[in-house]
Design a protein that fits this description.
This protein is mainly alpha-helical. Helix content is about 55%, strand content about 10%.
Amino acid sequence: MKRLMNKDSDPAETIELRATLERLAEELNRMAASAAQVQDALSFGRPTIQLSPQSVRDIQALDTITQKLEDLAHFSLAAAHAIPSAILLEKTAVFGGLRLHELVNTLDPYVNLCKSHADQGGVEWL
């Protein structure tokens, strides 16, 4: 079993890369759907109000964001299915830099509780 972690890592503090990529793909799809909803909401108001050319470009940029999120979701899922399920990652190494506790829970539903650093928005594993 290939492990992408320190040799002294506790196996309970590891996560399977394949499952994490699958959950990442699901989260990216949810984000793409949210971006599409924002784009639709902004576009519906367009006929009744006059927007500057820059505002129109900004709304159009949401379409690009949505497409990129959808493509990244597709890529993540394809990568997950292309790699062996035995590859493990150290949770602290891969989740330690994430600020959003909800995102950490989405990517690893079995993650230990963590506490926020109010000054940096970081995460400390308990």
